[in-house]
Amino acid sequence: MCWLGNVQVAIDDFFKSKGLTYWHELSILARLTEEVGEFAEAVNHFYGEKQAPIGSPIPSEEEEMGDILFTLMCYANKHNVNLRECVLRSLDQLADEVKAKEGAVAKKFGVEEG
Ligand SMILES: [Mg+2]
């Protein structure tokens, strides 16, 4: 099992060992949205023109990415979704799109695919 699956299992084991239950779907979605907003704030402070108010803590990109993944994994665990399979399916889709574009370009310029 890859790291993604291991982390999902670790989160699930933690919840079970502490007697915790996953939050309601809408609560998870709200939290995920909040975390994406915090990530956007971190990116904006680092790359954008918005400066953090003096004395205000600047959110860390790494911390917010972790919060996003954690929250998404909670949703996935609640619904027995294997995120590793989801991500690999997304990668396959991208690979198919790239291959189709490469084929279209090769056809346009009369290049044989190898
Ligand atoms: Mg956060």
Describe the secondary-structure layout:
Elements: H1 3-17, H2 25-47, H3 61-78, H4 83-108
What does this protein structure show overall?
The protein is an all-alpha fold and 114 residues long. The chain contains four helices and no strands. Helix 1 (3-17) crosses helix 3 and helix 2 (25-47) packs antiparallel against helix 3 (61-78). The protein is flat. The two termini are 33 Å apart. 8% of the residues are buried. Residues 35, 38, 64, 67 line the site of magnesium ion (MG). Magnesium ion binds at residues 35, 38, 64, 67.
Name the bound molecules: magnesium ion
Largest sheet: none
* Broad shape: flat
So, CATH architecture of the largest domain? Answer: Orthogonal Bundle
User: What is the overall pLDDT average?
Assistant: 91
CATH topology category name of the largest domain: Helix Hairpins
Tell me the number of helical segments per DSSP (H or I, 4 or more residues long): 4
Query: How large is the radius of gyration?
Result: 20 Å
Please state roughly what percent of the residues sit in beta strands, choosing from under 5%, 5-15%, 15-25%, 25-35%, 35-45% or over 45%.
Answer: under 5%
CATH class membership of the largest domain: Mainly Alpha
- Helix and strand sequence: HHHH
Low-confidence stretches: none
Say which CATH homologous superfamily of the largest domain is assigned: MazG-like
Q: What level of helicity do the residues show?
A: over 70%
Q: What's the total number of strands?
A: 0
